[in-house]
Amino acid sequence: MTQIIEKVGKQLEYLDRGLIAVKTDKGILVRWRIQITEYAEARFELYRDKEKIADINQSENSNVLDKEGRMDSQYSVKTILPGKEATWSESVSVHEHPYFDIPMQKPADGITPDGKTYTYSANDLSVGDVNGDGRYELFVKWYPSNAKDNAHEGYTGNTYLDCYTLEGKQLWRIDLGVNIRSGAHYTQFLVFDYDGDGIAELLCKTADGTIDGVGTVIGDATLDHRNEQGFVGEGAEFLTLFDGETGKALDTIPYKPDRGIPGSWGDHEWNREDRFLGGVAYLNGQTPSALVCRGYYTRAVIVAYDVEDKKLVERWTMDSDDGVPELMGQGAHSLSVADVDGDGFDEIIYGAAVIDHDGSLLYSTGIGHGDALHVGKFDLDRDGLQIFMTHEQTPNEHGFEIHDGKTGEILFSIPSPDEDIGRGIAADIDPRYRGVQLWGYAPEGPLRVKGTESYYTVKGEVIDGPVLPANFVIWWTGDLGREILDHDFNPDTEDGIGTIMKWNWEKGETELLLKAEGTKSNNGTKGNPNIQADLFGDWREEVIWRADDSTFLRVYTTPYYSPHRLYTLMHDSMYRVAIAWQNVAYNQPPHPSFYIGYDKDAIQIPLPEVHLVKKNQ
């Protein structure tokens, strides 16, 4: 039975207080989350060992630095709302470090049909509440060491999807089987509570021989569709909805669109036909729909599904071959979702094209395919949202550009005469300049203006200084600016040690805040963490990296006090769906629907009508 709290507006997940306490060199930092429905009115009392030690009013952030706290202290929070009975959080103990480890059940090594051994590492993660207690569980994609880009031949090991509690209890494992090739572009797994019952579901592509979390085989387990190059160019393709609590397959349908005739995606080499994307969007403004996609170099198809009575129900299909040539070739190696036209319904930013909530084309810039894609409130002097993208095709008048989210109007761009601009970031890291800053990389190095290393204001003004790492950015310290989430890359092992750095604009250099010794980054030079998201505590973000040997995940949480009050970012629907699509292809960092940054007077915190869904225990 599902209990609906404040049953109006957009459906969001109920979350618990998310209380966490960590030892710092200045005391014990205690942090907890504020839900969107209580943001304006809630005040809190913090207790240490059942004794009240702090009052937090309606204007203060939900964190306290307790200088008298000890490692054996126990903390709890009392929430007080007008006209309601006060509630208590569970008590928590103190973490000795600003991180904790979650043990993993690493899959056994395997051997390919041509006799080569491979191992496994924990790759992309997603999160969802699978038991209705208001805490997130982790969904882990296990990557074989022989995972391949679509352009490269060779056998790969099976991809596995696991679900774990934050304590490391394995709830189930799905084996996608030999007919789902392993690599960044093959398995886009979408975790969300689609039907509003308080339990997250999992959606992904499956095939003959996929085994669900309770041991049931999907399709025909006897069929192996791999050819001698290791590609899967024939055989059944499915889309399966799984129960998040058990891993049981709830509904399996044919994957749409299918491969079509040879060459219909732009090549004959099983490459472009297997470029998959996915996402989650509030297409009706209230409930989430799943987006299932194929193709972006040439033909592109997006199918939207709702979940009704545990079944997948198609909402609409958009196909560039079906009278929408403006969509062809415009996709990126990821997508984004945002309400760019301000009508209360989400649009799909499919690279250089934007698809309206009803499956029609809103517009296409026509600039073409690219790697980096960011959507958010970047220019504080304009209404609405902006889209920042880098582009691959050359020569290109707009190789590195930012455009208006609603109209597609180019606001600022840099030409790329002969290089694919493969990396790019939009984030507020420098308080000297209004709004966000932009920077990026081409394969041979940073973007340059007249031979000088530089980054840019959102208006396109050159800022002298080095071009910074362009992988991820994170809200980590106590101010409102973002920090740089990267890795110390080792080209010999093709991975790195996770890092967080602060841009010091006065010195013109980065300062290392964290080097996550004993961990590894994912996806080669891209330097991705397993996930970055606001998982607990206040509105600052957590980051998870895998251990060197993937026997555990290490969860890092900020050790910095902050005076700035916000509700949990997971209750901003644009940020929340970004966490769902973060694992898709070339991972990109999440952005909320509103500006957070150094220009504090420009921060306008939205308080839309929502309802929080909680499963009765």
Would you mind describing this structure in some detail?
This protein is mainly beta. Helix content is 1%, strand content 41%. It is built from one helix and 50 strands. Strands 36, 37, 38, 39, 40 and 41 form a six-stranded antiparallel β-sheet that branches. Strands 11, 46, 47, 48 and 49 form a five-stranded antiparallel β-sheet that branches. The radius of gyration is 23 Å and the shape is globular. The N and C termini lie close together (9 Å).
Keyphrases for this structure?
617 residues; mainly beta; six-stranded antiparallel β-sheet; five-stranded antiparallel β-sheet; globular; disordered N terminus
Give the overall average pLDDT: 94
Q: Strand share of the residues?
A: 35-45%
Number of helices: 1
**Shape label:** globular
Helix content: under 10%
Structural class computed from helices and strand pairing: mainly beta
Report the major sheet.
6 strands, antiparallel
Global Rg? 23 Å
Number of beta-strand segments: 50
Please specify the SSE layout and strand pairing.
Layout: E1 2-5, E2 10-13, E3 20-24, E4 27-31, E5 43-48, E6 51-56, E7 63-66, E8 75-80, E9 87-88, E10 94-95, E11 99-103, E12 110-111, E13 117-118, E14 120-128, E15 137-144, E16 160-164, E17 170-175, E18 190-192, E19 201-207, E20 210-211, E21 217-218, E22 237-243, E23 249-254, E24 276-281, E25 289-294, E26 301-308, E27 311-319, E28 336-338, E29 347-350, E30 353-355, E31 361-364, E32 373-376, E33 386-390, E34 396-404, E35 410-416, E36 423-427, E37 437-442, E38 445-446, E39 448-449, E40 452-457, E41 462-464, E42 472-474, E43 483-490, E44 495-504, E45 509-515, E46 519-520, E47 531-533, E48 542-547, E49 552-556, H1 573-581, E50 610-615
Parallel strand pairs: 2-50, 3-10
Antiparallel strand pairs: 1-50, 3-4, 4-7, 5-6, 5-8, 8-9, 11-49, 12-13, 14-15, 15-16, 16-17, 18-19, 19-22, 20-21, 22-23, 24-25, 25-26, 26-27, 28-29, 29-30, 30-31, 32-33, 33-34, 34-35, 36-37, 37-38, 37-40, 39-40, 40-41, 42-43, 43-44, 44-45, 46-48, 47-48, 48-49
